[in-house]
Amino acid sequence: MVSKTLTVKNPSGLHLRPAGVLAKAAGKCASDVTILYNGKTIACKSVLNIMAAGIKTGSEIVLQCDGPTEAEDLATLTELIESGLGE
After folding, report:
1. Which of 5, 55, 59, 60 is the most exposed place for a label (fewest CB within 10 A)?
2. Number of structural domains, the chain?
3. Residue 40, domain member (yes or no)
Protein backbone atom coordinates (compact mmCIF):
# COMPACT_ATOMS: atom_id res chain seq x y z
CA MET A 1 0.00 0.00 0.00
CA VAL A 2 1.19 3.49 -0.86
CA SER A 3 -0.30 6.78 0.32
CA LYS A 4 0.13 10.51 0.05
CA THR A 5 -1.30 13.47 1.96
CA LEU A 6 -2.86 16.08 -0.32
CA THR A 7 -4.71 19.37 0.08
CA VAL A 8 -7.94 19.85 -1.87
CA LYS A 9 -7.59 23.00 -3.98
CA ASN A 10 -11.00 23.08 -5.68
CA PRO A 11 -12.81 26.31 -4.68
CA SER A 12 -16.05 24.44 -3.95
CA GLY A 13 -14.46 21.27 -2.59
CA LEU A 14 -15.24 17.87 -4.09
CA HIS A 15 -18.75 18.53 -5.39
CA LEU A 16 -20.38 16.58 -8.25
CA ARG A 17 -18.09 17.46 -11.15
CA PRO A 18 -14.68 16.94 -9.51
CA ALA A 19 -16.00 13.93 -7.58
CA GLY A 20 -17.10 12.43 -10.91
CA VAL A 21 -13.70 13.06 -12.48
CA LEU A 22 -11.96 11.43 -9.50
CA ALA A 23 -14.31 8.42 -9.42
CA LYS A 24 -13.92 7.86 -13.16
CA ALA A 25 -10.12 7.97 -12.92
CA ALA A 26 -10.12 5.71 -9.84
CA GLY A 27 -12.37 3.27 -11.69
CA LYS A 28 -9.67 2.80 -14.31
CA CYS A 29 -7.10 1.85 -11.65
CA ALA A 30 -6.24 -1.78 -10.98
CA SER A 31 -5.62 -0.88 -7.33
CA ASP A 32 -8.14 -0.30 -4.57
CA VAL A 33 -8.26 3.47 -4.12
CA THR A 34 -9.43 5.11 -0.90
CA ILE A 35 -9.33 8.51 0.77
CA LEU A 36 -8.93 9.00 4.51
CA TYR A 37 -10.77 12.13 5.66
CA ASN A 38 -11.99 13.09 9.13
CA GLY A 39 -11.42 9.58 10.44
CA LYS A 40 -13.43 7.98 7.63
CA THR A 41 -12.29 5.73 4.81
CA ILE A 42 -13.95 6.63 1.50
CA ALA A 43 -13.99 4.34 -1.53
CA CYS A 44 -12.97 6.50 -4.49
CA LYS A 45 -14.65 4.49 -7.22
CA SER A 46 -18.07 5.86 -6.18
CA VAL A 47 -19.13 9.46 -6.87
CA LEU A 48 -21.74 9.25 -4.11
CA ASN A 49 -19.19 8.13 -1.52
CA ILE A 50 -16.88 11.01 -2.41
CA MET A 51 -19.68 13.59 -2.33
CA ALA A 52 -21.13 12.22 0.93
CA ALA A 53 -17.78 12.80 2.65
CA GLY A 54 -18.26 16.58 2.32
CA ILE A 55 -14.63 17.32 1.48
CA LYS A 56 -14.18 21.09 1.33
CA THR A 57 -11.51 23.32 -0.17
CA GLY A 58 -8.35 23.41 1.93
CA SER A 59 -9.06 20.01 3.48
CA GLU A 60 -6.19 17.59 3.93
CA ILE A 61 -6.88 14.08 2.68
CA VAL A 62 -4.78 10.94 2.54
CA LEU A 63 -4.99 9.18 -0.81
CA GLN A 64 -4.24 5.44 -0.59
CA CYS A 65 -3.71 2.88 -3.34
CA ASP A 66 -3.32 -0.84 -2.72
CA GLY A 67 -2.83 -3.29 -5.56
CA PRO A 68 -0.67 -4.40 -8.47
CA THR A 69 -0.28 -0.91 -9.98
CA GLU A 70 -0.44 1.11 -6.76
CA ALA A 71 2.56 3.37 -7.41
CA GLU A 72 1.37 4.31 -10.91
CA ASP A 73 -2.20 4.80 -9.71
CA LEU A 74 -1.10 7.02 -6.82
CA ALA A 75 1.02 9.17 -9.15
CA THR A 76 -1.81 9.53 -11.68
CA LEU A 77 -4.47 10.39 -9.11
CA THR A 78 -2.15 12.74 -7.20
CA GLU A 79 -1.48 14.70 -10.38
CA LEU A 80 -5.21 14.84 -11.11
CA ILE A 81 -6.12 16.10 -7.62
CA GLU A 82 -3.28 18.64 -7.55
CA SER A 83 -4.37 19.99 -10.94
CA GLY A 84 -7.87 20.70 -9.59
CA LEU A 85 -9.76 17.77 -11.14
CA GLY A 86 -10.62 19.64 -14.31
CA GLU A 87 -11.76 22.89 -12.69
Report:
1. 5
2. 1
3. yes
